[in-house]
User: Fold these one by one.
Assistant:
Number 1:
Amino acid sequence: MESRSHRVGLKAAAVLVGLLGALKIYGVVAHQVGNIPDGVLGIPTNGLALGAGLIELGLSVLMLGLLSPIRSAQGLSMWGFCLVCWRVAHAWSGSAVACPCLGPARQWLGLSAATEERLLLSIAVWWLLVGLLAWAREQLCR
Amino acid sequence: MGKRTIMPMSRPAGAGLLWALVVPVIFAAVALQCPLNSALKVGGDDGYELNKALLVSRDPQAAVRMWNDQPWLHTLLTAQLFKWVGEQAAVPRLFSLVSAMALVVAVGHLIRKDCGRLELMLVGALLLSAWNVPGLAMAAMLELPAIAWAVVAAAVAYWGYGPVRWWRLVLCGAAVGAASQIKWTAMIVMPALVVMLVCQLGWRKAAWALVLWLVGFGAVVAAIAVWSPSFDPEQLFLSHLKANMALQGADCAAARFRFDTVLQNPAMVVAAGLGIWRGWKWVSPPAMGFGLTFLTTAAAVAVAQRPWWDYYVLHFYVPLAMFGAVGAGWAIRAALRFAAEAACSRPKADAAAASGAVGLLGAGHGTAVAVLAAPAIVALWVGFSVLNVVSELAMARSAKRADQMDIVRAMREFAPQTRWCFAAAHEYAFAARVLIPPELVVLPWKRFLSGNITKQDVAQMVMRYEPEQILLAGYDWPKGAGFESWLTNTYVLTDRDGLRELWVKRSLNPPELGTRTEMRLRALGL
């Protein structure tokens, strides 16, 4: 049984992740079919960004449909996953746009670029493991 | 403090077998994958130890004159092994690897009575992947073996509760004595060891235990001191003190403790925090006391010691790996239990939810922390520690091979006629198997800093020895005292590799630099 605030928070996180995914897809499509320049809205416009956007959108839907006590954690980790997609897409496209969330934190903490990369990899693995835990628990529940 | 509760934990009955299988596999993998014998240099002070052992092995009389600010045991053992198996760089490097394995087993032993097999595996995973450890485990350096055998000594003295076993105390003292004669930094284990003994035995018995301990310690230190070519307090103690005092007032960031060296291992730090928080309830007081005291001592040393080299971070790793294994083990077990217990069929969870005693995830707060922390620890380990192992192993694998370097080949060419060689880049001297004059074998920055030697002294000593080979390394020493003119008059520049220049005595009829280059081009058919 979960509190109402948990549910609202989770839904907000899911919507945010979904929006970020949709924005990525929009950026790629708009760049391909229209006259919108590369990196519109600070979003890289390549295949990876498209893939990342699709995954985020899918996960957002999945997140809204899940009924698990672990959902809050999963929501948080979705956000982490979004950061990873962002960073990987940037590395792929060579875009100079900094990660909007980790970039400022990196500067504030004085972290090196290598540490930022390692942190992002850790976030990705964390998301994967939390997702696995949630999946295992859901399977047992059914 | 609340009432201590003992967590039911299956005793790791097969732990010995586990170690017997895992440790040799890791050992063999590293030994076979990395060029431990042919690498020119692995780690900062690798060359010092190799050259010291070479000198002791070939000319024990000259070793008496060697300036050596470290105890002699490691050098003496390596020199002896050089006589038995040949002058192989792999000998001390493999010893470091063995020591790293011993450290893992010893730290595992300290928590063995309170934890399961998972925790023992975690000790190895956290410790061996920690920043700097793979490099230190492959280098002919003293820090890791000294700390490793000191912790092994503590493990010998740890038996939980029960009657005093006098032979363990004597053996522990002997082992700490031996470790301290590898490097004095091994003595960092002492406060933790005393606390552990007090927790095990109580004050009165611990005092007697320390007397037995001192018997073993004193006997071994005395025996090694007698065996050593010299035992000069000025070199062994005062040189460190002088360097410390010289650096205390100096604004030298390179010589200070940097907290980010510990944060290079976020998985270990997070897990250790959890370990101290949760382990308080079930880790036995002797082990807990040992770990906390070790951590405090390491912090105190970091604050006081100058210069504080990056490899001293190893002092933190011992307690952090210990608590880290406890914390990570708890979190992983709790997370797996959480995943295995489906929420929909758990009456307890519903009851807790109804009473309002629920945490972030609808479970208890402890479980919620574990469910978030276990993946975080694994993720940080993958993101930082695994990448760290990969990069340190890659660095070792790509180290310059002595056999493939032209300048080393040139040095070897003149080695049969060489009595002495001054090498500013000392690792080259060992690679060519030539001896450095004993006073100049160990020439660290600290020695200049403490005023023990000056650049002019080095120049004068080199001129006095008139070594057959001189390898300059682009440093601004030796210099002064007419060194430059003496060098060009008495020696021939015969080879160059970047900033390194090999000068050979004219009496050996060495070819000029141009001639040698021509010979090489001709050999290549150019």
Number 2:
Amino acid sequence: MTGDLSAATGAPRLAGLTVGDQVASRTVHVAREHLVHYAGASGDRNPIHWSDLAAREAGLPDVVVHGMLTMALTASLVADWAGDPAAVREHGVRFTGLVPVDAREGADVELSASVRSIDADSGTVVLDLLARSAGSAVLGRARATVALA
Amino acid sequence: MPVDAERVGTVVAGPVGYDVGREVLRDFARATAVGSTVHPAHVDRAAALDLGHDDVVAPPTFAAVVAQQAEGAFVLDPSSGIDFSRVVHGEQRITHHRPIVAGDALSTTVVLQSARTMAGNEMITLCSSIVDDQGAPVATSTSLLVVRAEPAP
């Protein structure tokens, strides 16, 4: 059954990967409405993510994206590539930069994932994840361990 | 007031229960898709069953939402010694032992793993263990919270 699905969805296979390969990339446009949605869905209602006043009082350049939303964007990228969200076994990031979101223009977040290492014994691949906005990396040491057939 | 060093290594919150609903997972999946197509396994039960899951599956970072609800019982309690208005999320790590699916009755226990001061900032690491109603491990969430130093008077 798994084999059929894998063939049907074109899910990646461990044997087809090489260290250094970029396996997925995507640019996501984030607007204020996305931050409000994430605030409600996650329960993180810190006003620095939706209130200009709160952001200013906290000394921030603008309203900023929730770090956990940026992490979730990298998780979605990996899950879509793997074909099954449950393939993501481990996921870790450092929050190293802010993503300010202009009220009119929003912000672009550029995401990519590349192969860091392959472990045939455990059937897993470790991906290096990149997230950049306005030319700067916003995550550090971002990696995901993904189980593949 | 820093965190009490004697609490390092001890349970500081929980067990805190979390009942996972289908619509909550769908909404979280839409919130984290941000314009991209939502993976069908998060919203469509038949698609999730096709992949071998018992019901719609949580997006991977949903485990941190469950953990943070439990961590709040410690972090937001004034007796913890944490000024939450000065907290910045420094790092996050999630280990999945199995996917979270709709219908799960989860329980989270939070351990204060470490607390140390660097350049006036307090670095607090919380490790939250999420188990199901049988006590089987579901996910482990590790969060580094940075309590920024008070500005000089």
